[in-house]
Write a structure and sequence with these properties.
This protein is of the alpha/beta class. Helices cover 47% and strands 19% of the residues. The protein has a 5-stranded mixed β-sheet. The relative contact order is 0.16.
Length: 196
């Protein structure tokens, strides 16, 4: 009887549809600290898990590059010191990270400036690992959705107090249209990979 109850508990809690998956390699420049990186990966995973997408975090050296990376939806996030090379408004997310796009190729590479993230976090009373994870999620969002921004939420160009409060409580997410588009992009990729 106990075995039947245990089996029912396992079967009943197993989701009917498996989550979409993507690989993300984090490459570090300088010494951001393993604790900060782990907290950021955990936060970014939570943001994507809320739309039923699982992230497999991998070592930097294992990542494919170019079109193969884009085809497999294997993204690389470089954590860098310093700031971007171009001037941006102080509260713009462009001061914290950027995704790279080519006109005719899918995108797979983003950079996040962890020193700028830490400075922003201390000025705005946000946990650095949480902020770093949300910036990573934002840049991964660009790689999946393209270069545009939204008026609210994680894909907003500059986070205001509303987004920062949502971040503090773990509620800064993609909107429903963005979530649907991300799942669709990853689903098409999975279908193409299994058909080849």
């Amino acid at each position: 009887m106990r075995a039947a109850m245990w089996l029912c508990a396992v079967v009943c809690t197993t989701p009917v549809f498996a989550a979409e998956r993507m690989n993300v390699s984090v490459c570090t420049e300088g010494h951001p600290g393993s604790k900060l990186v782990a907290e950021a990966e955990s936060e970014a995973s939570a943001v994507f898990r809320s739309l039923d997408v699982e992230i497999a975090w991998t070592q930097c050296r294992s990542a494919p590059i170019g079109e193969e990376a884009a085809r497999q939806h294997w993204f690389t996030v470089r954590l860098r010191t310093g700031k971007p090379f171009f001037a941006t408004p102080a509260l713009s997310l462009d001061t914290l990270g950027e995704a790279f796009f080519a006109d005719d190729r899918p995108a797979y590479l983003a950079e996040v400036y962890y020193e700028a993230v830490q400075q922003f976090a201390s000025q705005r009373d946000v946990e650095p690992g949480v902020l770093l994870g949300c910036v990573i999620a934002h840049e991964l969002g660009h790689l999946l959705l393209g270069p545009g921004h939204a008026p609210h939420g994680i894909m907003r160009a500059a986070w205001n107090n509303l987004e920062l409060d949502e971040m503090r409580f773990g509620r800064l997410k993609f909107n429903s249209a963005e979530s649907d588009q991300i799942r669709k992009v990853l689903e098409v990729s999975s279908d193409n990979a299994s058909g080849s």
